[in-house]
Amino acid sequence: MKSVIYRQLATAIHNNKAATMKLSNLERLCTMLHCTPNDVMEWIPDDKDNPAEDHPLNELKRNNKVFDITRTLNSIPLSQLDRIEKAINDELENMKKE
Asked: Which residues of 64-92 are buried (b: 16+ CB within 10 A; e: fewer)?
């Protein structure tokens, strides 16, 4: 599979304006990023939608932890970022071995 994402689609994704996407483009994107669709998609239910807590769509809802992590990382002094990056990479390597 050719790993190309067209500029218009990449710009829409970057600007959070991609309302629709062909499955072939989603597959290409996931192949390039070595991830699953759940990693790149978010489900925002309408007010009338109220699925059960165990409904699989709930896995596509983002939680505030993502934003808390971003705020935390932004507050780390630059002098500590190398140490934090190494710790994260070490943990990711350990997870791959499991």
From this structure: eeeeeeeeeeeeeeeeeeeeeeeeeeeee
In order along its 98 residues, the chain shows pLDDT tens digits of 455 667 888 888 778 788 888 898 888 888 888 888 888 877 777 777 777 888 888 878 777 666 677 778 788 888 888 888 888 888 988 888 87
Residue-range domain boundaries for the chain: 1-58, 63-98
Q: Supply the Cα-derived Rg of the chain in whole angstroms.
A: 17
Query: The whole model's pTM is what?
Result: 0.49
Q: How many whole angstroms separate alpha carbon 45 and alpha carbon 55? A: 12
